[in-house]
Structure formats: C-alpha cells, structure tokens
Amino acid sequence: MDDRLFRNAMGKFSTGVTVITTEFENAPHGMTANAFMSVSLDPKLIVVSIGHKARFLEKIKTTQRFAVNILSENQKEYSMKFAGQLKDDLEIKFETLDGLPVLPGALAQISCEVVSEHVEGDHTLFIGKVLDIKLEEGNPLLFFSGQYHQLAEVEVISS
Ligand code: FAD
Ligand code: NAD
Predict the structure, then answer these.
(1) Ligand 1 mean position to 45 CA, how many Å?
(2) How many Å apart are CA 157 and CA 70, to the nearest integer?
(3) Looking at CB atoms within 10 Å, which of 85, 97, 123, 134 has the fewest?
(4) Best substitution site from 17, 32, 79, 148 to test ligand 1's pocket, by max atoms within 8 Å of Cβ?
(5) What is the pLDDT along the chain (159 residues), one digit of tens a residue?
(6) Are 138 and 73 in contact (CB under 8 A)?
(7) Domain coordinates of the chain in residue numbers?
(8) What does the alpha-carbon distance between residue 124 and residue 141 come to, in Å, rounded to a whole number?
(9) Pocket (CB within 6 angstroms of ligand 2)
C-alpha cells in the first residue's frame, strides 16, 4: 500500500498535539507527537509512540521518565519547533514538574515513568505510569489532515 494513502487516512483522525519532554544529560529535550492515548484508569497509564528515526528515542529509553505536554491553541510554534520545522530560533523556557522539564501554558502537563516498551514496526510504544498532573484552562491545538486547526467555537454537543 502507498504510504501517502495510509497517512492521508490516519490524518482523517483529528487529534490534539503533544510535546513529549525529558531530561537527558542535564539538558531538556522535546519531541512533537500526536500518537498519544489514555490507556488505563487503574492503574493510570498512557501510551506514546516514538519513531525509530527520532533522536528522542534513545533519550526516553535511557531516562525511563518523560512528560506529556498537551498544547493549547496558541502553541503551534512549540509544535513546529519540537518537530524540527521551525527555522527561527525560539527560546524555550521550561518549567519543572516532578523533576521533569515541562512547557508553560500547556493545557496539561503529565509526568510519567516508563513501565513497558513495545517495538511495533518502525515505532516503539512506551507505556507510561502517570505520576503527577498539572492542568490549565484553554482550548486545544488540533491536527487534522496534516494541518493545524483550532476550535471554531467551543460548543459542547450533548447526546
Ligand atoms: P530533534 O531534531 O532532536 O528535535 C526536534 C526539534 O526540537 C529540533 O528542532 C530541536 O531544536 C528542538 N528541541 C528539542 N529539545 C529542545 C530544547 N530543549 N530547546 C529548544 N529546542 C529543542 N513522531 C513520532 O515519532 N511520533 C509521533 O506521534 C509524532 N507525531 C507528530 C505530530 C505532529 C503534528 C508533527 C508535526 C510531527 C510528529 N512527529 C511524530 C514527528 C516528530 O515530531 C519529528 O520527526 C521530530 O523532529 C523527531 O524528533 P527528533 O528527536 O529526531 O528531533
Ligand atoms: P501527515 O499527513 O504525514 O500525517 C497524517 C497522519 O499520518 C498523522 O497524524 C499520523 O497519524 C500518520 N503518520 C504520519 N507519519 C507517520 C509515520 N511516520 N508513522 C506513523 N504514522 C504516521 O502530516 P504531515 O503534516 O506531513 O506530518 C509532518 C511530519 O510529522 C511528517 O514527517 C510525518 O511523518 C511526521 N509525523 C509522524 C507521526 C508518527 O510518527 N506517528 C505522526 C504525525 C506526523
């Protein structure tokens, strides 16, 4: 099957955008990821999927700790920066949660420790046990069909 067809199909599933962060050799590192999912409530587990070409892979494998930063609608530049898509220098001032670097202004900062790793094709799935959470009010940055979006209006559609 053609890669583009697969990516176009996966892009029809609209997601939020996260930046996965960790501290490696006393420096903060981040990587943009939309392959993020809640896994279990008891215990509280989440999953992120990291491509084997990403430099972040060795860092998370070594530290076994990471944070998920769920981006707000005004943080597109963070997403582009941590995906290597921003040419301009963007100075990032990290905060700390549970000893991990996290992004100020993220809708949620979630600190985790790796409890298992699963190699699947050209990605590795990292199951993270949630250690701490910090929330902020705001609207999400969305990713759909390979482009960024924001909510047109915040309208809750009830059943
Ligand atoms: P690096 O080149 O090491 O880092 C990426 C960028 O982050 C660089 O520009 C670097 O300067 C910057 N950076 C890192 N740390 C810091 C710091 N402390 N201060 C300032 N800048 C810093 N890939 C996946 O594997 N899984 C996904 O789920 C996924 N989802 C994505 C979703 C979206 C919307 C996008 C745009 C990309 C996604 N990617 C995903 C691709 C991934 O973000 C890129 O391939 C990424 O560049 C790979 O990271 P790296 O560790 O190899 O890059
Ligand atoms: P795109 O059209 O490539 O992405 C649409 C969707 O396809 C994504 O939301 C994701 O679900 C899927 N996808 C894309 N690349 C993938 C990969 N290598 N492995 C597994 N699933 C993948 O959107 P775009 O704007 O061209 O993406 C920008 C860059 O970020 C591209 O280089 C893309 O490969 C990368 N990206 C990677 C992942 C991932 O590794 N899981 C996810 C999103 C984007």
Answers:
(1) 23
(2) 22
(3) 85
(4) 32
(5) 999 999 999 999 999 999 999 999 999 999 999 999 999 999 999 999 999 999 999 999 999 999 999 999 999 999 999 999 998 888 899 999 999 999 999 999 999 999 999 999 999 999 999 999 999 999 999 999 999 999 997 666 676
(6) yes
(7) 3-149
(8) 25
(9) 7, 10-11, 34-35, 49, 51, 83, 143, 146
